[in-house]
Amino acid sequence: xxxxxxxxxxxxxxxxxxxxxxxxxxxxxxxxxxxxxxxxxxxxxxxxxxxxxxxxxxxxxxxxxxxxxxxxxxxxxxxxxxxxxxxxxxxxxxxxxxxxxxxxxxxxxxxxxxxxxxxxxxxxxxxxxxxxxxxxxxxxxxxxxxxxxxxxxxxxxxxxxxxxxxxxxxxxxxxxxxxxxxxxxxxxxxxxxxxxxxxxxxxxxxxxxxxxxxxxxxxxxxxxxxxxxxxxxxxxxxxxxxxxxxxxxxxxxxxxxxxxxxxxxxxxxxxxxxxxxxxxxxxxxxxxxxxxxxxxxxxxxxxxxxxxxxxxxxxxxxxxxxxxxxxxxxxxxxxxxxxxxxx
Length: 343
Prior knowledge:
The chain has 343 residues and is α+β, with helices and mostly antiparallel strands. It has three domains: 2-95, no CATH class; 110-190, no CATH class; 194-341, Cytidine Deaminase, domain 2 (3-Layer(aba) Sandwich). 18% of the residues lie in helices and 28% in strands. The chain has six helices and 21 strands. It has helices at 8-13, 164-175, 194-205, 236-244, 276-287, 330-341, and strands spanning 2-3, 29-33, 39-44, 49-55, 61-66, 79-81, 88-90, 95-97, 102-103, 139-141, 147-150, 158-161, 188-190, 212-217, 226-227, 249-255, 260-263, 266-269, 295-301, 313-320, 323-329. Strands 15-14-16-19-20-21 form a six-stranded mixed sheet. Strands 1-2-3-4-5 form a five-stranded antiparallel sheet. It is elongated and about 80 Å long.
């Protein structure tokens, strides 16, 4: 169980059954939740237990004790509508009938699961999954495009895990029937849309001499292509373009030209590592909330054993203000992303 912040429960316990303020003095209340986000216990700020809930798998209550206060947020943290004996959980756009274990309306992602009822909840597995949005279950994949596990949340988000140890960790959990929390992974990269991949290919084709890049919105929309010079690029216009369209920006991409520097009259070729300026700019974007995914750098990378030889392999690096979180060979990355998106 986990102790939840003292915000959501303040409101639901600050009023009595008739909507009147229960107390003139603010009193904080806390939820204790299980792994599915079900509110199992409500605790007052002085430690007094005010409510205990027990649930059937699909949310039906088979045990509820309370000291009289009204606290309607229960299964998955959703409000239980008891008016006129309805007893449905309010998930926002839809309601869940816990007695039937079915939605009141058709699942918006029903076409993805022809083998299941369009009214199904959590793929009929509410012990393992939760469904806060009614989307597809988020999955984890390895660099070969093989599904290795899930986060148990139906948000439609897929992730490519690039660290071998983390891949094995997810496989082990999945084999035991468990889910992997995204917060426990450092190399999980959200799988981009094919549109983002195609735009990156275009940037790569135009970056023979100067840097090129673009900005990506959370819905996969990309900004216009931006040109830089031989050693730098400013992606600010891309962020402004998407923000002007009312879109939430997620990350930026820039491609480095084949570049080199001279040491003792010997050419050493640059690689896909972010520069100090890249890290600083990323930090600015993190501070103002303009990014929610790692940024990309795509570049031809020299062989570590022969750094003075012209590089032939294109690599991609994913980075935040703390540095690189993962790398991959560009062609392999493109092949895997396309495979996942076309499933």
